[in-house]
Each structure stands twice: as structure tokens, then as C-alpha cells.
Amino acid sequence: MTAMQRLTISIDDDLAEDFDALIEARQYSNRSEAFRDLVRRELQQERVAVQPDVPCVASLSYLYDHHDRTTALRLMDIQHDHHVLTLAATHVHLEHDLCMETLILRGPANAVSKLADAILAERGVRDGQVHLIADGRPSAPHSK
Ligand code: NI
Fold it and tell me: What pLDDT does 141 receive?
């Protein structure tokens, strides 16, 4: 169990009300967990801003029309060209002509972002989104 510190924070009524509404909308069980997640998110963004090559993992999901055969081939080529960054790829045949792929990526944040941008910019790829989780801790799992 991680050691915990108890913080006492003062915020104005309006902000507290908005925070509680957010907690309810996001289904947090308490303020502490919601606050921790907000701080973690900010810290991650700060790490990537200060250290663009910070180690990260990411999930990249997108849809594409598999009737355009060249899209599938181009996506496969990009993944092979970046096999070091691409840990896993899951392909789902959503509908007759619609595919969904989710890639699990790992590497320096700037390289992972660049790869995600390249895939999302491919002709035929749509509704894509990348979620990057940066970890700048010296003791980050799997980093030495
Ligand atoms: Ni498919």
C-alpha cells in the first residue's frame, strides 16, 4: 500500500459544486479519487511537455472501411515499419465493410504520438483517438 498524505484544500463554493457535479458524472466514489486522477492527468501532460521523450504506453483505436484494400495494406505496413513501438494489434470485423483496430503502443511519448498521428492521418482511417499514458518516474515498471 502506498503511503498517503492528507491534504486540506480550500476552494470557493462554486468550484466545489462543479467538482462534485464532475465526480457524480464520472462516477467517482469520493472526492479523493477524483482529485488524484485530476492531478495525475496534469502531471502526465507536464511530463510530456517538459520531457517529450518520456516513456509511455498508449492505446490507439480507429475505424476504417476494409473495402478500400489499400487502407488495410498501408496500415499493416506502418505497423511493421514501427514494430518496436507496436506491442499488439487487435482487429475486429465490426460490420460487413467496417473494421476496428486497437493498437497498444509503447515507447518515447514523441515517437508514439508521431506514429499515432501518421496512422490517424491515413486515407480511409476515421473516428480515431489515441490515449497516451506517460510515466516519468525513475522506477517506472519495465524501465531501467
Ligand atoms: Ni475487418
Answer: 54
Q: Distances in Å between the alpha carbon of 142 and those of 56, 89, 108, 137, 139?
A: 11, 20, 13, 11, 8
Ranges of H-type helices in the chain: 13-25, 31-50, 69-81, 109-120
Least Cα distance to 56 among 121, 128, 130, 126 occurs for: 130
- Compute, in angstroms, the gap from residue 66 CA to the centroid of ligand 1: 6
The Å distance, Cα 72 to ligand 1 centre, comes to 9
**At 94, phi and psi to the nearest 5?**
-70, -50
pLDDT digits (tens, 9 = 90+) for 79-102: 999 999 999 999 999 999 999 999
pTM of the entire structure?
0.78
Q: How many CA atoms lie within 13 A of 18 on its CB side?
A: 5
CA-to-CA distance for 84 and 72, rounded, in angstroms? 20
Rounded to the nearest angstrom, the gap between the alpha carbon of residue 64 and the centroid of all alpha carbons in its chain is 20
How many angstroms does the Cα of residue 86 sit away from the middle of ligand 1? 19
**Nearest 5°: phi and psi at 90?**
-115, 130
